[in-house]
Amino acid sequence: MKLKLGIAVFLLAVAAYPFLMPGSYPLGIGIITGALATGTVGFVLLLGYAQQLALGQAGFCMVGGYASAILCVNYKWDPLLALLAGAAVAMVTAWAIAAPILKLRGFVLAMASLALHLILIVVALEMPFTGGALGTYGVPKFALFGLPLASDLAFYYVVWAIVLAFVLIGLAIDRSRIGRALKAIAASETAALSAGIDITRYKVQMFVVSAGMASVCGSLAVHYLRAMDPNVFGFGGGGGGPRRSSPACARSCAACRCRCGRA
Amino acid sequence: VDFSVFVQLLLPGLTTGCVYALVALGFVLCANVSGVVNFAQGEYVMLGGVVAAFLFSHGVALPFTIVIAVLVGALLGALQERLTLAPVRRSADFIQITITLGVAVVLRGIALIAFGKDPLSMPGFSGDGVFEVFGAAVPIQSLWVWGATALMLAVMFWFLKFTDPGRAVRACSINLQAARLMGVNAERLTLAVFAVAGGTAALAGIVITPIVLANWDAGIAYGLKGFIGAIIGNFRSPGVAVLAGLGIGMLESFAAGYVSSGFKDAIVYGALLAYLLVKGGVFVFGRSSLLSR
User: Fold this and answer.
1) Hey, are the CB atoms on B108 and A238 less than 8 Å from each other?
2) For A203, B35, B254, B273, which has the most beta carbons within 10 A of its beta carbon?
3) Chain B contact for A237, CB < 8 A?
4) Is the distance from CB of B15 to CB of B208 less than 8 angstroms?
5) Which range, of A115-124, B64-73, B278-287, averages the lowest pLDDT?
6) CA quadruple B204, B206, B208, B212: dihedral positive or negative?
7) Are A34 and A100 in contact (CB under 8 A)?
8) B117 and A262 in contact by Cβ < 8 A?
């Protein structure tokens, strides 16, 4: 009951926000917040429930962001298809590296996953197909089944609809056998293992799910920013996050091909 | 391989390695007494550098600049412990570590607002000249970096080996719980160690600034590479951590010189990843490795 009420209030707030805070700048903040929220659901499953301190998850945001940017700009893919392709790449990658990396624990896992993210940033800077430090720009607006979303307002609602879908998936996992297993793993891996829980399997599952959600986060953010460069999901904190994501800044960047902020 | 090129890469690598070594030492000491990995460690290097460069450019004499910047580092280290870690000491490690990450972001933001986004420079302590070793040109300031590092390390190891608080720190590194039960005042010790670690990192930041400039976002790189040193020292052995820090500095310099300067970070982090995976028992197959630490 309390949960349903919470979701209702959440939906109402999301629906009313563009009208309470009119203007393109607040709307931009709403879209970016929603994009980040999609990734956050995945982080909650991995960091919150399973307590696996995988700090490098923003690397998967980069995978999604670059997949969307490169496929849409260079290969003229449909944005939705590019988003799904990015998520698929992120999930397959996560599945491939999950077994070794999730054997690590605590701060060693934190550092190892962070190292992967940092290596990815260097790769994005140095490889020809990513556009290097300038990034890939001129990303089209998001489109659903070939129909471009005419306004940012429409995109705003699409983003938050995806957030809602992810939250519902998260809640379903929470109430399932998987959710209980994850909480057991968080409490004590040894105890969970001795109670017959296949901890590796559940950790890998959550790693893959959270990578997919992080990738969607990256794709959505890029379709709003209309450009992707190594700083968008960089480790810079102040340099990578909010300032770059501020709509005016990102828009002018995409338009004039220059890097703002730190450049 | 040309020997002068080798030396030209080795010595600057040693210089940055000194900074990593001091940061790694701070990581190990903080982790030993508090059980928490302080991810804000690298930010104190950055703060030492920007505070010193700022004061110097506003006409403060060099000795005072150094003393004030070190004190700022030590004070902020102590404040971090008092304000953000002491109140949550009973919380899970997970939460405490995340808080130190938050502190790092806050310190970085404060530096950005207070000192601006442009890199600050500072002249070398004995001029900006260079001297030659085996045909390699090395800034004279490097001598200050090596000297300051050697002095700090000597003081630190004397402290750990021959003083009572130092013995208490080492006792904590062997067994935190037992040390507390034996009457080690962990609260006071933690506060002192955070202050010392902050001051040491700040000093490293001050002496390196004439060579590399001081920038608000430089702390991450120092922190991460010092962290690698601490990991190789297993968060137990200050000596190994210091040597590893120096080694990382040189590895980075050689990677930049012989492979690619763009990929130097990727090479260092790749080496770390490989080390962690091997050490984490990932290549040992079977169930037993799953629970081995």
Assistant:
1) yes
2) A203
3) yes
4) yes
5) B278-287
6) positive
7) no
8) yes
Residue A33 to chain B, least CA–CA distance (Å): 19
Amino acid at B83: L
Residue type, A135: G
Whether the pLDDT of residue A245 is over 50: the answer is: no
Q: Give the integer Cα–Cα distance in Å for A237 and B40.
A: 13
Q: Which residue has the tokens 């563009």?
A: A18
User: What whole-number distance in Å separates Cα of residue A41 and Cα of residue A48?
Assistant: 10
Nearest C-alpha of chain A: how many angstroms from B181?
Answer: 25
Interface A-B, measured as beta-carbon pairs within 8 A, has a size of 88
**CB-based contact B248:B269 (threshold 8 Å):** no
- Predicted TM-score of the model (pTM): 0.79
Residue pair B27/B235 in contact by the 8 Å Cβ criterion: yes
Contact A239 B289 (CB under 8 A): no
**How do residues A184-232 score in pLDDT, each as one tens digit?**
888 888 888 888 888 888 888 888 999 999 999 988 888 888 878 777 7
pLDDT one-digit tens code per residue, A21-73:
877 888 888 888 888 889 888 888 888 787 777 878 888 988 888 888 888 88
For residue A101, which residues of chain B lie inside 8 Å, CB to CB? 277
Contacts of B273 in chain A (CB under 8 A): 112, 115-116, 119
What distance in Å separates the CA atoms of residue A200 and residue A209, rounded to the nearest whole number? Answer: 14
**What is the phi/psi pair of residue B131, to 5°?**
-125, 160
CB B146 within 8 A of CB B11: no
What would the mean pLDDT of A235-241 be, rounded to a whole number?
Answer: 43
Mean pLDDT, residues B176-182 taken together: 83
Contact B45, B218 (CB under 8 A): yes
List of chain A residues whose C-beta atoms are within 8 Å of the C-beta of residue B270: 115, 119
